[in-house]
Design brief:
The structure is a homodimer. Chain A is of the alpha/beta class. In chain A, the strands form 2 sheets. In chain A, strands 5-4-3-6-7-8 form a 6-stranded parallel beta sheet, sandwiched between helices. The first copy, chain A, has a two-stranded antiparallel ribbon with strand order 1-2. The N and C termini of chain A lie far apart (about 40 Å).
Chain lengths: ~210, ~210
Amino acid sequence: MTVNKNCIIRLSKYKNALAKLKALGFVKVFSDNLADAAGVASSLVRKDFSIFGITGNKKGGYLVDELIEKVNDILGKNDIQKVVIAGAGNIGSALMKYAGFEKEGLKVSAVFDSDPSKTDKNGPVPILPIDSMKDYIKQNKIRIGIICVPDVSASGVFDIMVSSGIKGVLNFAPVSLKTQEDIIVENVNLVGELESLIYFVNASKKMK
Amino acid sequence: MTVNKNCIIRLSKYKNALAKLKALGFVKVFSDNLADAAGVASSLVRKDFSIFGITGNKKGGYLVDELIEKVNDILGKNDIQKVVIAGAGNIGSALMKYAGFEKEGLKVSAVFDSDPSKTDKNGPVPILPIDSMKDYIKQNKIRIGIICVPDVSASGVFDIMVSSGIKGVLNFAPVSLKTQEDIIVENVNLVGELESLIYFVNASKKMK
């Protein structure tokens, strides 16, 4: 069985639920609990864990602390994960300040923008000129980048990231990036997501 | 052949590319051009269009203006699409100001937040108390909602939206919403997307 993106996103949800259960004082958890939290079947929870060699006790379930440690280990959460953002517009600025990332050990190291008026070297997250992005990524050995620049600039920014050592990109620009074998690109197309919702809502209205 | 979400997201990309080609003065366009822009095979472009009864001239390609009109019609772009946002935090505020939406005829009508200090009735997009969301959605016949509240509040906000007439939800909270048959929920799990990237980047490093 191979690991796919959906499996990892489910692990991320289980981790989220586990943290809440731990805060409530739970010592043990059952696949049914995690299934409810992640909105999937409990057999899938067990399948996901078994891929990574995690087995529970049929009667006793999983030990919460042990499970959190194992899931964190799989997700690489035992190291702080540093990312850079290109583009300090609305989306880039929101992600820079997004509490959800920090809570999960994801640290935005720096943001880069081509507009000099946005430069802010002393903020909690520094905003630096885009020209310095290449050296910064190399010096800090960053491997993950987020692209929040306008679509006309996205492909140029992507090329700089890849040539500096970035291996994974979360792309918010609504364009397709020509990628290479060893670079992973995930696209979050916000306009596309909304347009798809509108289409299906309208389609179901017409069917009635 | 049925229409799925990926097909609609591709249509959204074609539309984006068509607008740029039109601006450059193009009168005709070929499936190969759109395939490049969307990063898919040209046979898939023709397949997508044929689902909606759009056929090109094999030699002459598609007429840009005609194609834009047809795609807009499919995507319901000939009407302005109004949406509401719950949550005026970092992500909600960014989406409220996101130029990408407005450019595509997506209008954020109002944002709702439980924090009274965020209320701003006179802004370009009004920020209103969450208590008024239900009436607002009903009165303005809004059908699409975006959830950007913390995960503990997400399910409550979702229930209010559904009971007010919302039929499609874009959910940024990293929790699964218990949905019903005629409500469409799309999840954008930002932490999950990043964690998935990190996992696969780390996994490919280990393989080397």
